[in-house]
Design goal:
The chain has 130 residues and is α/β, with parallel strands linked by helices. It has helices at residues 21-29, 52-64, 75-80, 82-87, 111-129, and strands at residues 14-19, 43-45, 68-74, 94-98. The protein has five helices and four strands, in the order βαβαβααβα. Pfam families: ATP-synt_F (PF01990).
Length: 130
């Protein structure tokens, strides 16, 4: 495997998770969790005591950190801060909405899916003009 590039571990990116306790625990058990020297984590457990402000702050922090490549957010949590999720337009970190066991996934509320549909509808309109 001569041409294969090695990925340095000191500059590898993280996955952040904003979700309910069961979802975050599953991702932590899979090895996603990280606590840095300043005791900053890459996850937020959302329960009935978590305020919308805390969710907003975590989302803003995770999307501004350079060591995070993907932010996984439960769709019902994303609905609480929909204005931030829909307004986010940077490619990295990517925002992916995921289902949780207590809240079914609704594709109508998924910001990524709606953007893809918009792009394909714009593309089909442009291809019809040719």
């Amino acid at each position: 495997m001569a041409g294969r590039a090695n990925i340095p571990t000191n500059s590898s990116a993280l996955i952040a998770v904003i979700a309910d306790e069961d979802t975050v625990t599953g991702f932590l058990l899979a090895g996603v969790g990280n606590v840095d020297l300043r005791k900053k984590t890459n996850y937020l457990i959302v329960d009935n005591k978590t305020t919308v402000k805390q969710i907003e702050d975590a989302f803003k922090e995770f999307t501004s950190r350079e060591d995070i490549a993907i932010v996984l957010i439960s769709q019902y949590v994303a609905n609480m801060i929909r204005f931030l999720v829909d307004g986010y337009n940077k490619p990295v970190p990517a925002i992916l909405e995921i289902p949780s066991k207590d809240h079914p996934y609704d594709p109508a509320h998924d910001s990524v899916l709606s953007r893809v549909k918009y792009l394909f509808s714009s593309e089909s309109v442009a291809s019809e003009r040719r």
